[in-house]
Amino acid sequence: MASPKFLEEASKQVRPTYAYGLFFVSLNYIAYYLVFHYYDPLEYYSTIAKDEKLFNDEIARLWANMQGFLDRERIIVNNIRVRPRVVMIDLGFTESKRRPYIVFTIRFRASVKMGRNIYENFYDSEVAEYDYAVYWVFPPGSRIIEVDMGSGNEEWDVVGGNVLAIYGYKGRRTGGYEKIVFEVSKAAIREEEYKNDSN
Prior knowledge:
The protein is an alpha+beta fold. It has helices spanning 4-13, 44-49, 52-72, 186-198, and strands spanning 15-26, 29-39, 74-77, 80-82, 85-93, 100-109, 115-122, 131-137, 143-148, 155-159, 163-168, 177-184.
């Protein structure tokens, strides 16, 4: 078993290298996945993954940290504040034990409805430590009307009318605010379903 001193030092050497988020919007709720990639030179995560207690303690710590971060955000959907909750955490490796990744699954009920919707998120602006990308996927037939990423240096693009791609870069400041105005249309959803059924 690894010594506490080694684990403390190894954990300090872990650094994030990239992250991405996948947001899926549906009527009445929003679910998303945040995936963080790390460089772990002393194989901290590989070491704790071999010990059930250490692993469970680390997952509990990650869970509390992420939930605390979410609790500090103020997210409002159609003038109603919503409360995101962590529902799952997973740990894995890409290429080697020095390249771990952590997945957070998060969801919340939201008053997404037919017609015009407004999503807003107020959070602390900061300088990014790594590059990242975020993808918002809205229901078939919906349309993104307006995007406001605050006063930061992020870039964004709307693809196909209802997919939003946001890009952030290491060393650039995040905006501290997000606003997405989108419209969900019954007629458009029916048209999309018809297209899929006819293929």
